[in-house]
Amino acid sequence: MNTNTNDTLSKFWFIVSNAVPPIGFFLFFRHRSQYPNKARRALTSGLIGVPIAILMGYIINTYILK
To answer: Which keywords accompany this UniProt record (predicted)?
Structure first.
């Protein structure tokens, strides 16, 4: 049984993995066996960051870099 109490993703890494989704995916694969809750939160943040990145890329290309 895992007795580690460090099974939460810090706010910093949550924000970074949301802003840069590949980091969230990397954190998921790095922590998936030892820290499952941390890995799940990193994966969720990365998956949420993908549509946000696509939307922001569209907005920047269409309206700002016009």
So the answer is: Membrane, Transmembrane, Transmembrane helix
Which has the higher per-residue pLDDT, 65 or 66?
A: 65
pLDDT tens figures, 11-50: 999 999 999 999 999 999 999 999 999 999 999 999 999 9
CA distances from 57 to 21, 29, 42, 47 (A): 14, 26, 22, 16
Give the helix/strand (H/E) hosting 48.
Answer: helix 36-59
- 3-state secondary structure at position 9: coil
Q: Give the rounded distance of the alpha carbon of 43 from its chain centre.
A: 6
For the chain, domain boundaries: 11-64
Identify whether the C-beta of residue 38 lies closer than 8 Å to the C-beta of residue 14.
no
